[in-house]
């Protein structure tokens, strides 16, 4: 049964060094598919640091984003609430002050707290939500600033580039476009900038407990950087379901996205670099670039993890690695996210628990990024707030069942552009026994038996023999909606 309930409790036999509290290092990549890592079967990408971290961690084999787009996913990940409850439904949303994130909820004054990198939840450049130290990286979000915020403010990263001798190329002559940043040498790229700042924070605060979130842009678009040629086509192959279309009864939004990519090429997604997406070679070029961006983030991981180990804090620091959503990268002829195919919604989740007497292992049941915050409460010895809609994953780490054995995924459409006009609100269910039900309000729905169809090529939704399965899974979704206050009519 897919009931939504909390599962508090600590690991059996958990221990921390006497007289100390555990640190938390939370590493977030942007648009990284789960299957980029060795922990998920990929031994081709050059990711030695992420792969070593995964080998030392509990690996959640089937973790799903709460919503496959940046803002809503991050809001859910940081609050432990589903997007419809966190209040961030689209990328233009702002996390309101009454919605508390992990450091605010923990409310432990002993901790030094920091958030470095991409925020994507409003007021991008300004410290907020219980984070004492703030390193900003993303410009161009002034329209999401709260009243009274300085509209002329620029990010810490832009100031760093100016101090390093680079000249801004934006209209305001103060900031840098993504096109310009994509062409920078590796030394000056965002991942290296964050790695330096995070390492300094870790070393400086080694005598007190701390919580640090480091949010990378890589391997997000533009799929272009100094490591474009670090992988061969054999090391960064296209997915086996390229081109992978059509799927019978595919939602119109998916068809719209594919047609736009085929017509406008990569410029339909972001302006750099401009080339078509009409051939296998063009998709293959992006796949190699994407792998290079993953390697770029991996190098930054290595620098941060070295600072942790060199300062003697590895044995008392919980390390989480996840991503806000995945990336299609040619699967079903698509790039980007926003859709409910596995490549878009499945993300890595590894948690290194140094004081855990249970050896690093694997959890096969489906979980959600909404479950991370409750799990951290349990690991850090604090009571899980009753407001949490996610559940602690400690029972699963201990080999026990979870009270909610399914994962749910939302899609909440934005307004104001052609893509949104072709989109519909939707909800998705992923079951422990390999089924995926994708429901949209007013659009085509999908049902996949992933045990027999792991590439999701055969939509079973309209087959008569699927009626009983659909009815049963719809009831799971409706029960979840009632328990979480989700009013969407499907």
Question: Can you put this structure into words, describing what you see?
Answer:
This protein has 490 residues and is of the alpha/beta class. The chain has one domain: Alkaline Phosphatase, subunit A. The protein is 28% helix and 13% strand. Strands 5-4-6-1-7-9-2-10 form an eight-stranded mixed sheet, covered by helices on one side. A four-stranded antiparallel sheet has the order 12-13-14-15, covered by helices on one side. A hairpin with a 5-residue loop joins strand 14 (435-440) and strand 15. Helix 7 runs parallel beside helix 9. The radius of gyration is 21 Å and the shape is globular. The model is unreliable at 3-16 (pLDDT under 50).
Question: Secondary-structure blueprint of this entry?
Answer:
Layout: E1 23-29, H1 48-55, E2 58-60, E3 63-64, H2 70-79, H3 83-86, H4 102-106, E4 112-117, E5 133-135, H5 156-163, H6 178-182, H7 190-204, E6 210-215, H8 252-264, H9 280-310, E7 317-323, H10 342-345, E8 346-347, E9 349-352, E10 362-363, E11 367-368, H11 372-379, H12 394-397, E12 407-411, H13 418-421, E13 426-430, E14 435-440, E15 446-449, H14 467-484
Parallel strand pairs: 1-6, 1-7, 2-10, 3-11, 4-5, 4-6
Antiparallel strand pairs: 2-9, 3-8, 7-9, 12-13, 13-14, 14-15
Q: Which structural traits does this protein have?
A:
alpha/beta; disordered N terminus; 14 helices; Alkaline Phosphatase, subunit A; eight-stranded mixed sheet; globular; 490 residues; four-stranded antiparallel sheet
